[in-house]
Amino acid sequence: MGSRIVSFELCGREVEVLVSPMATLQSVLRSQLGYTGTKEGCRQGGCGSCTVLVDGEPMMSCLLPVEDVEGRRVTTIEGIAPVAGLAPIQQAFIEKNAFQCGYCTPGMVVLTKTLLDHHPSPSRDEIIDALGGNVCRCTGYAPIIEAIEAAAAGATTDAGRDAGDWPDPSGER
Amino acid sequence: MTVVEYFLPRSLAQAVDLLSRHGPDLLVIAGGTVAMPLINDGISLPRQVMGLRFVGLDEIEPSDGGLRIGATTTLTSLLRQRHVPMLAEAARRTASWSIRNMGTVGGNLFTPPPGGDVAVALLALDAEVTLEGSRGRRTLALSEFQTGFMTTALEPQELLTGIGVPAVAGETTYVKFGRKEANTPSVVTVAVRVARDGEVVTDARVALGAVGPHALRARKAEAVLVGSSLEPGAIDEAAEAAAEECEPFDDGIASAWYRRAMVRLFVRRALEELVQHVALEGR
Ligand SMILES: Cc1cc2nc3c(=O)[nH]c(=O)nc-3n(C[C@H](O)[C@H](O)[C@H](O)COP(=O)(O)OP(=O)(O)OC[C@H]3O[C@@H](n4cnc5c(N)ncnc54)[C@H](O)[C@@H]3O)c2cc1C
Ligand code: FES
Ligand code: FES
After folding, report:
1. Dihedrals phi, psi of B146, to nearest 5 degrees
2. How many Å lie between the centroid of ligand 2 and the Cα of residue B95?
3. Domain A88-160, CATH 1.10.150.120 — does that match?
4. CB B180 within 8 A of CB B80
5. What residues does B27 pair with on adjacent strands?
């Protein structure tokens, strides 16, 4: 009774974690496993900042009891980036100014990843449809849509370049 | 979080057994998209919870020209099926991609208004629900299953296991009106089904959502339509009847007054759309 061990695949790695009954995947990722890329906004399923992929399908981790992902494959924003550098989607978000505060960005990027896995060249309407559950209070969405279009078209300047090559806002490096 | 035990049965038999052993104190959840927000906010404080994600009731199968939908079928699976286009459309207009991957068709029948957008379409299709418990199995019309605001005919030891949709007789339209286009709570949802013999309507269903304690049939509007040829006068009269007989409420989305006005408008539009469809197909 009570706590139990749950094991699942997290970003390509097997994890085992002792959880209290019905802890949400979101809270286990953030507080127990140190995967803080998954954000916590509303905890109501209404903002999308906690979006993760379960067996490749987007879900709101704030509404998902962690026991329900036993034996399944979970991908968070930490699993989208290659070991070194950035994924093309991340690069596209930078180049199109698709974030300001960045709070919605992990959810947006995770969603984009699975959208492009399902539809390599989505129409603008399909992109808008896919984003329906992910709220951004900063950008007004247009740059996000453009970033997704750019990522789909492979139109980022230097996909996957090293993170150390980011433009440095201070101008000195 | 007050939960001390979370059960994840692997079969219907196990689920029914857990339910009869733990009684009404056991909170049942399927996709959790209605129950979890309440638990996260401390509005619902269950001690024992049973999740239905692994009981294996998530299949959609064609049956006698209609469909058999397992209770825990996700809204995404409903959207993807091609047998009953109105149900795909209802799923498409419900919530967002991630929520549709979690939320279930069965759960939608328990969702309080302004939710329940899939239930509205199912009501217009004369759907039946199957309930199973330690005392056996029974089948009920959806219109008898939903009994009030957040109340149903489900007995404490029973689970909703499936939804039966008969072969669709006639033409259908589905219209959901919210404050924005996507992922929006409904101001009013209208599902219409009309069967005709030549020009003359022989059977009609006008189902309304978000304007009553649960999905409602506008029976006076249906009576106006039967025997008509869906001429403009009949459509206006049916829309007026639906606006009169609905039971709208005030909430953060819309006032009761506005909801009633939108019932008049969207019942008319749904019927006009249906007439247009038929005219196009007949050409
Ligand atoms: C952001 C957001 C947007 C939404 N938008 C919409 C929308 O546009 N339209 C809409 O209609 N809904 C909407 N919803 C509500 C919800 O997602 C859907 O109604 C969904 O179909 C509910 O199903 P569920 O399985 O997740 O329900 P759950 O939360 O799992 O179940 C709710 C309750 O129903 C009962 N129950 C469920 N299944 C069974 C069963 N098989 N047997 C016995 N009892 C059962 C239990 O009492 C349970 O506690 C939204 C929700 C969120 C979070
Ligand atoms: S925190 Fe999960 S949807 Fe907002
Ligand atoms: S960048 Fe601030 S919420 Fe989207």
Report:
1. -85, 115
2. 13
3. yes
4. no
5. B49
Q: Is residue A23 within 8 Å of residue A14, measured between CB atoms?
A: no
List the structure tokens of B126.
Answer: 């004369």
Q: What is the CATH number of domain A4-79?
A: 3.10.20.30
CB contact at 8 A, B251 and B215:
no
Residue range B171-281, CATH number: 3.30.390.50
Report how far residue A21's alpha carbon sits from residue A19's, in angstroms, rounded to the nearest whole number: 6
CB B99 within 8 A of CB B34: no
Topology annotation, domain B60-165: 3.30.465
Cα A173 from chain centroid?
29
**pLDDT 10s digit of each residue in chain B, 283 long?**
799 999 999 999 999 999 999 988 999 999 999 999 999 999 999 999 999 999 999 999 999 999 999 999 999 999 999 999 999 999 999 999 999 999 999 999 999 999 999 999 999 999 999 999 999 999 999 999 999 999 999 999 999 999 999 999 999 999 999 999 889 999 999 999 999 999 999 999 999 999 999 999 999 999 999 999 999 999 999 999 999 999 999 999 999 999 999 999 999 999 999 999 877 776 5
Q: Which residues contact A151 (CB under 8 A, 6 or more apart)?
A: A88, A89, A91, A92, A112, A116
Q: For chain B, what is the HEC assignment? A: CCCCEEECCCCHHHHHHHHHHHHHHEEEECCCCCHHHHHHCCCCCCCEEEECCCCCCCCEEEECCEEEEECCCEHHHHHHCCCCHHHHHHHHCCCCHHHHHHCEHHHHCCCCCCCCHHHHHHHHCCCEEEEEECCEEEEEEHHHHEEECCEECCCCCEEEEEEEECCCCCEEEEEEEECCCCCCCEEEEEEEEEEEECCEEEEEEEEEECCCCCCEECHHHHHHHCCCCCCHHHHHHHHHHHHHHCCCCCCCCCCHHHHHHHHHHHHHHHHHHHHHHHHHHHC
B253 part of contact set with chain A, CB < 8 Å: no
Among A24, A25, A30, A44, which is best to mutate for testing ligand 2, by the most ligand atoms less than 8 A from CB? A44
- Considering only the beta carbons, identify the residue of B6, B39, B101 that sits closest to A57: B101
Least CB–CB distance from B36: residue in A1, A48, A63: A63
Q: State pTM to two decimals.
A: 0.95
**Measured distance CA(A151)–CA(B240) in Å, rounded:** 50
Task: Provide CATH code, domain B5-51.
Answer: 3.30.43.10
